[in-house]
Write a structure and sequence with these properties.
91 residues, membrane
């Protein structure tokens, strides 16, 4: 989960929700302002989770002079793909 830059990606994905929520709350007169609050809070939630994952993710291990890293693996995502496929609504 912490591969790459989760704080950057969550900001990229969450910022449009924050901006849309802010626009609906302040600048849109066709709807009540409270309509934009869930969008803004969801965007802030996405940004906050990404920052949290970035903060608690482990760094690369520090090796001693006589140590070497033999193998570096990433977990497979087969189970996650199956759960996503099962979770999709059947039409």
């Amino acid at each position: 989960m912490a591969r790459g830059a989760p704080a950057v990606w969550s900001t990229v994905l969450g910022l449009p929700f924050v901006l849309a929520g802010g626009w609906l709350y302040v600048g849109q007169s066709a709807y009540p302002g409270v309509v934009g609050l869930p969008f803004a809070f969801f965007g802030l939630f996405v940004v906050g989770i990404g920052a949290y994952v970035h903060a608690v993710s482990p760094s690369e291990p520090r090796l001693g002079d006589d140590e070497e890293l033999l193998e570096k693996r990433h977990p497979t995502q087969r189970v996650a793909r199956v759960k996503i496929a099962v979770g999709l609504p059947c039409w």
